[in-house]
Amino acid sequence: MDDVVELRVHGVAGASATKVVGHPNLVQVAGDRHAGFYRPRPGAGAADGAAEMTVEGYRWGGLTGGAALVSTLSLLLLPFMLCNLAVWLRPAGPDRFGLLATLCRLLGGTLTAGFVLAIAGVSVDLIGWQCASYQPCIAGRPYLSWLSALPVGPRLAVLAIVPLVALQIVWGISARRARTFAAFGGTKGRPTADSLDAAGFWDDGPSVVWLRRIHFCLGAATLDAVLLTALVPLGRGAVGMPLLSIAIGVLGWCALLLCRRTALGGLPPARSGRLLRAVTNVLTVLTLGYAVTLPAADPKPAQLPGFESETAGLVAAQAALLVALAVVTVRRLRTRRGPGRPALLGLGTPVVGAAAATVAAAFAATLVYRVADWLDRGIIPDPARLDPPGLPPLEPPVSYWWAALAGFVALLTTAAVAIWSMLLSRARRRASAERDIRTDYPEAQPEAEPRLRELREIIARSHLVDRLGPVLVAFLAITASGLGAVALDLADIGPTRLAEELSGRTGQPALVVAYLTDVGIYVISLLVVGLAILGAQAYRSPDTRRVLAVLWDLGTFWPRTIHPFAPPSYGRRTIPELGKRVSVLARKGGVVLSGHSQGSVLAVVTLLQLPPATVSRVALLTHGSPLYRLYARLCPAYLGERTLHEVGERIGWRWRNLWRYTDPISGPIFPGRASRGADGDAQTVDERLRDPRSLTVDPDDTVPPPVEGHWAYHTQEEYRRAVRDLAARLPIRTDDAAR
Question: Count of H helices and E strands in the chain?
């Protein structure tokens, strides 16, 4: 086995190179500080778990790490990340006419427009239009009082720069880490979203550049429309109305471009993107110039004209897109029934899309209402409760009330359904765990009963992830209906007014709804603030970092083909880099590619990108793998059962998969019906390990063996035996035999 290399790839949460290789004294043989390949230093001894061959580890965790400030700011990209993730969870089969991808891109466009509206709602509406015109609001605030000296047009023009700067900051945050991946290069080709083995699948650079132009123009045109809608009634309509028509036309142009299939299946139309950017830049300059030269006028003591309808229409459009996503997904599920049971009842795309819209609405409501609360000195305006005398009548959009109320109700409902599901399934999960335990320990002694009960609870908890389908589907239903209720705001009906109408204007129900909405806004605000604190704490606490890294690494795996402001995909570098290293090692001998957890996903996708001559010199070992339990069921169109069978056939079924009952993430790759159709070869892949090794204390130990769960597969004898068996099955080259 001198010519065989065991190449280990770690999972999420950024394991250290020392832990991956299992040796304290390492030397880097390829890569850089962000992602590199490490081996034990010559003469320093063998690696932990080495099976008579060279061990090399690939550490890619530095690609998703960063400073605390950058990581906290990256939380702003969470809605965009969820939106980008949604399309990869679509049902199996080709996306006919690119319909699901189009709906997801349109939803992403509404998120960008909503981001700009939220910033404009603070700077242009609350500060520039409402607060700066009222002495009680600017009293004692010299940093705001200078605004009152400016006419309303120039004042709004100055404050309109804030949303443009915020849009540029979000752009910069998303592009910052992408430069690390772009510097590596990697496989180039025509971007596609239909085949993992296509050249250039992970090269999302052209699509991201094209989408960035569209989204930046979409955000700028949204701001232009907000300004012009408010200022045209104040004068010079002959100039403002044509500009407003052009702004609406630019928004429609952006929507049409987002509907084009070339965003995923071909080269981006660079000429149309540059023309769109030029038109938008000229429009924005003319709009700001129009605002600056507007004759002096006194704004009415009310909300920014048109802003209420704009925010309500946007949120209602998001609800309509979520309903359309759900309808199209259900129709696809009815026409294409796979052999496996999909996760989230097959509704992964609309569920994650609903999560993206909900998080974006929570961010917007928190920002707008917390600023309004600060400006009006602690009093949140409410139609059911009059403002105290002398305080400015600040009025944030009622659509944010609806959004906060919908988010609060969705949160309570989801929590209730989750608790109900856990309680309802507890007996079944414990019974299943009991059967698993009795299979591994059929003759357990009476003194091992406490250990058996502990083990039963661990295994029962590990099955909770399989019970989240109804919970998240309930979240989708509540979120879509709650966001759809924002359409009532277009008819000038808010939550409290609706309660008044339904109760016959008695007043008491309206007051209850008002307080409930206040609670919802405070809860949503606390969650957003807690999320920011959690992001900052993640790089001080290893435990917190580990939990967040799991979610973040899973969400940033796929290419950015839906939203350009999503965090960059580390797959753009890891897949080509790992493939290049495997090719180099395969030319020198054989490779046992060992992937743990998310590393097993990287290994499988890498094999799909390699040529047959290289794959013939590679064997695959996966352990703690979520390939079937999560990816095949969540992403059946890309890593479904057909793809897994194809990988097995490509490597001649030189594949072993190790898993445990106590592991909440892993499972068999080919369970039950999924193992059929491969002439029995797929049934040889999976091997379950007993965990713990025994229930009682070993004669040479002082405590019982620990429950390993998801980690430390490479320290067990079954792992070393699997590596040796796979290495022995690798074909021997002619020059190897002669030597």
Answer: 29, 8
**For residue 152, what is the enclosing H or E element?**
helix 152-159
**DSSP letters spanning 127-141:** IIIIITT-HHHHTT-
Q: How far apart are CA 49 and CA 68, in angstroms?
A: 35
What interhelical angle do 398-440 and 508-537 show, nearest 10?
60
Region 365-378: mean pLDDT is: 82
**Beta strands per DSSP E along 566-641:** 590-596, 618-623
Q: Do residues 609 and 723 make contact, with C-beta atoms less than 8 angstroms apart?
A: no
- Which DSSP helix (H) or strand (E) runs through 496? helix 495-502
Which of 427-431, 595-599, 653-657 bottoms out in mean pLDDT, i.e. has the lowest?
427-431
- Token digits for 667? 């499972």
Residue 148: CB atoms within 10 Å = 14
- Is residue 365 within 8 A of residue 518, CB to CB? The reply is no
**Pairwise CA distance, residues 408 & 397, whole Å:** 17
Confidence category of residue 263, pLDDT binned at 50, 70, 90: very low
Q: Can you give the length of the chain in residues?
A: 739
Q: What percent of the chain has a predicted confidence (pLDDT) above 90?
A: 27
CA distance 84 to 563: 6
**pTM tops 0.70:** yes
Query: Which of 223, 224, 240 minimizes the C-alpha distance to 232?
Result: 240
Q: Is the pLDDT of residue 97 over 80?
A: no
d(CA 37, CA 26): 10
CA–CA distance, 510 with 502 (Å, rounded to integer): 9
Pairing of strands 4-9, 590-596: parallel
SS3 category, 700:
coil
pLDDT tens for 210-244 read 888 899 999 999 999 999 999 988 877 788 899 99
Cβ pair 633, 662 in contact under 8 A: no
* CB of 591 closer than 8 Å to CB of 602: no
Query: Positive or negative CA dihedral for 201, 206, 209, 215?
Result: negative
C-alpha–C-alpha distance, residues 605 and 639, integer Å: 9
Give the burial class of 377: count Cβ atoms within 10 A of its Cβ; 0-12 exposed, 13-18 middle, 19 or more buried.
Answer: middle
pLDDT of residue 28: 92
Read off the amino acid at residue 302: A
Judged against a pLDDT cut of 70, whether residue 260 lies above it is answered with yes
- Decide if 276 contacts 212 (C-beta within 8 A): no
Q: Are 21 and 40 in contact (CB under 8 A)?
A: yes
Rg of the chain taking only CA atoms, in angstroms: 29
